[in-house]
Design goal:
Blueprint lengths: L11 E5 L22 H10 L4 E5 L9 H9 L4 E5 L7 H10 L1 E7 L11 H13 L2 E5 L2 H13 L3 E4 L14 H9 L5 E6 L8 H15 L5 E4 L13 H11 L3 H16 L6
Parallel strand pairs: 1-2, 2-3, 3-4, 4-5, 5-6, 6-7, 7-8
Helix pairs in contact: 5-6
């Protein structure tokens, strides 16, 4: 239960990354940052926009070495939660250590890889283990493929979080079988969607509003929608900023009650900000 000893929750940014450019990075990465994105900078962005809490997402170019992110979690245990990248063979003790630091899920960045790589028995066993912990599995993949990826995960009993509006290359087309089936999946109580990084789909505000209307209707409301800044907007650093992304969200959901639902009520439930650790 939420207690008075926890800081007041005014808003939760559910998607941001931190890193230093001199950290060890994985081979065959799609991107290498030429700058540092520090936790101190991120917390300043939260403060400047009246947001109290944030969720750090392990960048794909750092692979399964979550140590830099864990350092930030341990320095700011009340303000932060995180989503890690792990191997399927991760032990229960290692999961316990991640949980102690504030990790509440894992991420599968499926851009440029085969989803079949995560369909084997070892991964499915891990997803069931995570479900037992109340963790989530976050997915980054284009809309056309999500209908093939999401159902097996949901069948494991885990919460599934889809990044960045589902990366629709164009509008969601109800005449497209995969799009229609994805909209149908949004009614599932364990499926969540992040209203983040519309620029990764070359989307303007008008298109984002159309997509929001579709997913909102399909999900039966706003109760499983989240917002994330995607700071520091890797590969798009010169095209947008934290302030621009927050202003975009305010324009997308101009009603303050609805914004509070997405910024406060929903992420409290998913990320466990209503309990101390």
């Amino acid at each position: 239960m939420y207690t008075a000893c926890l800081p007041a929750i005014t808003g939760i940014d559910s998607h941001a990354h931190i890193f230093r450019q001199n950290l060890p990075m994985v081979r065959n990465r799609r991107y290498s940052p030429g700058y540092d994105a520090l936790i101190e900078q991120y917390l300043c962005h939260l403060d400047r926009h009246g947001l109290s809490h944030g969720v750090l997402i392990q960048p794909s170019f750092l692979g399964t070495d979550n140590s830099y992110m864990l350092q930030a979690l341990r320095r700011h245990p009340q303000r932060l939660r995180a989503v890690a990248v792990v191997d399927a063979s991760i032990s229960e003790q290692q999961l316990d250590e991640l949980a102690e630091a504030g990790v509440v899920g894992i991420r599968l960045n499926l851009i440029g890889v085969s989803p079949d790589d995560y369909a084997g028995p070892e991964w499915m066993t891990l997803f069931k283990r995570l479900a037992g912990r109340g963790w989530q599995v976050e997915i980054q993949r284009g809309l056309d493929d999500l209908v093939l990826i999401v159902p097996p995960l949901l069948a494991c009993g885990v919460d599934v979080v889809v990044d960045h509006f589902g990366l629709p290359g164009a509008d969601i087309d109800p005449e497209n079988d995969n799009h229609r089936l994805f909209l149908h999946l949004l009614a599932e109580p364990n499926l969540w969607l992040k209203l983040s990084a519309s620029y990764r789909s070359q989307s303007d505000l008008a298109k984002a509003r159309r997509v929001l209307a579709q997913v909102r209707q399909a999900a039966g409301g706003l109760q499983r929608l989240l917002w994330g800044s995607d700071w520091p907007n890797t590969q798009f650093e010169q095209q947008t900023s934290y302030a621009e992304q927050y202003a975009f969200f305010e324009a997308l959901l101009p009603d303050t009650t609805e914004r509070r639902q997405v910024l406060v009520v929903n992420p409290i439930k998913l990320f466990g900000f209503d309990r101390s650790r």
